[in-house]
Every structure is written in structure tokens, then in C-alpha cells.
Amino acid sequence: MNDFFAAIYENDLIGFYAEGFSGELYNLFLYQKYGLTLLISVVVFVLCYYKLLDKPMFAKFIYWLLVLIVAVVFNFVFLRIDSEASLTSAGFSYDGEYLSLALVNALYAAIIFFVLSSIVKFFSVNTSKIPF
Known about the structure:
Largest sheet: none
């Protein structure tokens, strides 16, 4: 599973951080940890909006956008803090790569949130027309 998430995070279009950094993330199985955290957290946020907040009051684009922003910020902050703490405790020091990886993770969180919203919204009663 680490190979799967490493391929996603290190693709030519997005993966723009140093090779040593990505090698250490791979060796410490952090890609697997971050990929699973990304998927699980985004699914939870989407389900929270479309199932827990499935009331006419929340059937507005602004609430959907707010949940999207919270999901993106959560994934960004989690990865930024955890990657630096994990690699620092393993004896490595990188400067801008933590931020780059966190930005990539935030971008993936937004994309996955949007895709899942397009699918899950049909199972909702009141929020089925949100975001479009």
C-alpha cells in the first residue's frame, strides 16, 4: 500500500519535493499513513455534511464550502506537523519539503472531497443539490 500512495504523491505532475525527502517518507512508511489519513478524513467530512448536516438549514453552498475548507485545512495541518515531527525524530532535517507535501495533500483532499460529494449527494435528502 505504501507503493500505491508513493506513486500518487510522487507523480511527475505534482511531486516536486527533493528525492531524499521522498525516499525517507517511503522508508518510514509515511506515504501509507498519510494516504489512508487523507482518504478516511475526507470520507468522514463528506459523510458529515451529507448525512449529519442533512437538514434544510444546511442546504446551502456556503456550508458545503465551509466543510470543504475544514477538510482541506485539517489534512494540510496534520501532514505538515506529522511529517516534520516524524522525520525530525528519525534524525532528518528538510526545509521547504514539508510545506510542499502538505500543499499536495491539501490539493488531493479538495479533489477527493469534490468527487465524493458528486457521488454521495444522491443519498442525501435535503443537501442533494449542493454544490450544484
